[in-house]
Amino acid sequence: MKYHLLLTTLALTTLTGLSGCASDANDGARDPSSEGEITAQELTSIDQSAAPGDDAESDADDPSVVSNDDDGANETNLPRIEAAADGTETEDVPGEDADDAPASAALPIEEPSPSSVLLSDQIAATPYIGITEQHGDRIMVFPAGEFTWTNRTPSWSWGPNNAKTGTGKNAKLQIPKNLWGKFGNPSDIKFKKNGTLLLAASGGAVAIVRTKDRKLTFVAYPGGNPHAIETLPGKQIVTASSKGYLCVFSTAKSTDKTCEKTNFPLAHGLVWDGARKRLWVLGGTQLGSYSLNGSKLVLDKAYKVPGNGHDLSPDGPDTLLFSSTHNVYSFNRTTHTYRVLPNISPRNYVKGVDRHPVTKELLIARDHDLKDKVYGDDHVDHATPAGAHDTYVRKGAQIYKARWWVGR
User: Fold this and answer.
1) For bias kind Acidic residues, which ranges apply (predicted)?
2) Which residue ranges form the domains of the chain, and what is each CATH number?
């Protein structure tokens, strides 16, 4: 009798355990995007004691050796950066007018004629994608219509060796000597409507590059492992360093050694919201909204968000996309709610997320091993609004972020 009772007990225990396993498996398979909108918890201030969490990225300011790649003389012609047609507002962008050009710029910014700019309904026909390639410390741009980039010459590229004029003994560097070598491991790029590229590098330096001739029009050194850069009104830029601070620089001259500093733990992402006159900042588990008083950032609102924040990008006039350690989210700037972004797999360790403002196609750059041990991969995931998935590949590359070549 005791024997049969024991068998019955074991059987019930086993069935209960199997039932629990099945439930866990179903939970793991559940699409997290089905959870719906979640209201972000509003904070009274930015928590300056925020723990680093599981962000294992190195904060070393010493970048790798600057690449000696070719200067792009054989690169194919690339259309000018297309202007986004989503109503996104830009305001007083550095270099937008001839008077805005820093002293080091040889030529003023040349505004493209209407006939040379692709119209919004033509963008889908010839889109381009820019990547931050950390093995060679270069920014590279490739056509979106080709999924194999391995043996293809970039349509446009920039590296520290491009920041010079002349050749041989007559070559003159545009980068100050003390910043040479500080452009290792490029970590962020943003293309602007006025034909400039914003660049941040984990090596410590940031720059504005004129895409027409790849001339460096501004350079600064915020240090602290810069992960993001953005333009601000008043001929200014702001940078985000993962060591825990933001820097506002004036771009009125070719360089600025004065940083208007604002503390923000694990700062990783920046988006200027022209319509709301607010700067959105992502870092750790906090998303902050700042107004601008001259060169000073003034906290407006702060929210607690999931994760350990990595990237922040605009998605139309009312939404932001942000990635964290284990997921990708959309955040509504008006309702201050967020939800898991659908149509992404896998979701771990996404370093870069960007949606095309017109075609709504999504670019995802993530870690190679999905364990946050290698910062980048040789491929970029691509998803269409209809749910189709493809992959762009450049074998041997270490791609940290990917952005659509669209001015915003």
Assistant:
1) 54-73, 88-100
2) 57-166+174-407 (2.130.10.10)
